[in-house]
Amino acid sequence: MIRNIYVFGATSKIAEETIKHFAKESANFYLVGRDIDKLGIVSKDLLARGANKVELETCNALDWEKHPATVDKADNSIGQLDLIFIAHGTLPVNEDIRNNQMKVIEEFNINCTSIISLCTVASDYFEKKGKGTIAVISSVAGERGRQSNFIYGSAKGGVTKYLEGLRNRLFEKGIKVITIKPGMVDTPMTKDFKKGLLFASPSRVGKEIYKGIKIGRDVMYVPGYWKIIMGIIKSIPESIFKKLKL
Amino acid sequence: MNNINYLSFNKYPKLYPQSIITLGWLTDLDNLRINPLSLCYGMGKSYGDVCLNEGGTIFDITNLNHIIDFDEKNGIIKCEAGITLDKILEFVVPKGWFLPVTPGTKFITLGGAVANDVHGKNHHTAGTFGSHVTEIELLRSDNITYKCTKNENRELFCATIGGLGLTGLIKSVEFGLIPIETPFMYVENIKFDNLDAFFDLNEESEKLFPYTVSWVDCTTKGKKMGRGIYMRGRHATKSEVNKSFEMKEGAIPFPIEARFINNFTVKTFNKLYYSKQLSKISTQIVPFEPYFYPLDMINGWEKAYGKNGFLQHQFVLPYDNCKKNMQQIFEIIVNSGMSSFLTVLKSFGDAKSPGMLSFPKKGITLAIDYRMEGNKTLELLNKIDKLVSKNNGRLYPGKDARMSREHFHQFYPNFGEFQSYKDSNFSSSFYRRIK
Q1: Looking at this predicted complex, what is its ipTM?
Q2: Which residues of A touch B25 (CB under 8 A)?
């Protein structure tokens, strides 16, 4: 039973569409994000949908020294956590930043280092409690480096590998680690993209993630067809792949 | 930028905006620069050019889709304008509430429902959607948000209902829901032989049923001209649904979607019986979706008309001499041989919408799809428009791509008053065509 939920990056569309479903089950939420006004909008929506309690806190992903305190405060205000859901991220335009050293480091820190920081805090917390679920939004972009998207992709690749190891380590302790790999989702993050057939709606993706978290899947592609697409992309030999314009 | 994501539902006319701004949060609106030639765009389900803004700016509002407040006891809900009716139904139906008025698709935004002051099968009992709206928050290009109700900023409230998005950006809408016992409908389908028979049946049915609509054959000449199927219904009670499942024979052709199922339906769901066979009269208990939204179930039906798209044409004729006038228009349509299979006939009741430019008025309305075949199609519609005009009827802007400026001004005598509440920085291709 998932009742007390901590969300980092709670104003991401995918996070919102996922936790809506837990609200229906009267869950308690501790929402962390950058913008208190946006968190307030999400909070009202969750309460209208049936959430029991919603607490808010602002924290930047890069303020990692503050990460442990957010989890402690969540525990204090809504009770022992059942789920820590890490959903924040940015999607830079690779071409715009690839030669900007400081920008590349910042993007990598947002999309990888800060997630690993939070996972460290989360696994420590759940280990002490003896149970819990860590669910993290990675990306299909982390499956293979491509010239159009390798800064974001490599950060997400790092997250995926880290979670593999963490899942392996925490398995015996009864703590679940869930890697979520969305494909292309029609959100404000992708507003400048041409929307093709492969784009999924946030509500569809959110619902699938909710179901995946409930049954405790290890790795999930959302929507599921991305597993096939990425299977094909991963199977292309590097000698050919390096010549492709992907 | 020729972004086909931002055309209207019927893909005609093909007019493209210069820029698109996606709004993610209400807080994005705090410092929003609203330049001249701005227009909000939701699901793009209107037919024609009310949602188009050639050369201008489109604000995509579909991410403004949060629930702001819900009073479960009294059935009053307040949401951001970009939420779809589908998402509202998903939320309220399991709690025993329903939309007060719904058009034939649930994939429209709440803002669009207000801006077009949409109507449904219950117009004769419930009026338009706008009649159930209690508050609108409207952002104007002076960057002030106006709270509009029947008492506060009343003129702006009335101009915004049916105001085709021209009075500003609708941020949120609060409206009243209606209670339902079950998510099912009790429906009677009755065949009728011609237009005369429709009028008789309609008079009787309006008194008995909150929801009425007819599908009419617009291809048959002579004595059978205007034959069709009259569909009348109401929300089914628990005992009706229980009784219906006791009859258990066969399966439900349109299973109710899992997300609309509540405790009550879980018990009865599998045992429901639905008869496909249509004798003179058939009665059925069906989930609300195939009753209200038959076309939503056929994904992409609109593409069947090909790349030139199609035109939808909807007019209303007042009751004076309605039978004779409707007969005359039917003859023109039937003889043209250009009408499609999707023809809907329905009566509008007395209820007066607060909307200044609201379309429905007491009488009979006919909606028909026509494949776009260039001048031939346009000439036919012009011919019908003349008769509508002569007989004091009017056309629906939400389904129009070509009515004349003169006709619009005749049909909507409040347009002059409306102009003083229009926001000068909001515009649309429709507005520039008819102003």
Answers
A1: 0.86
A2: 11, 37-38, 41
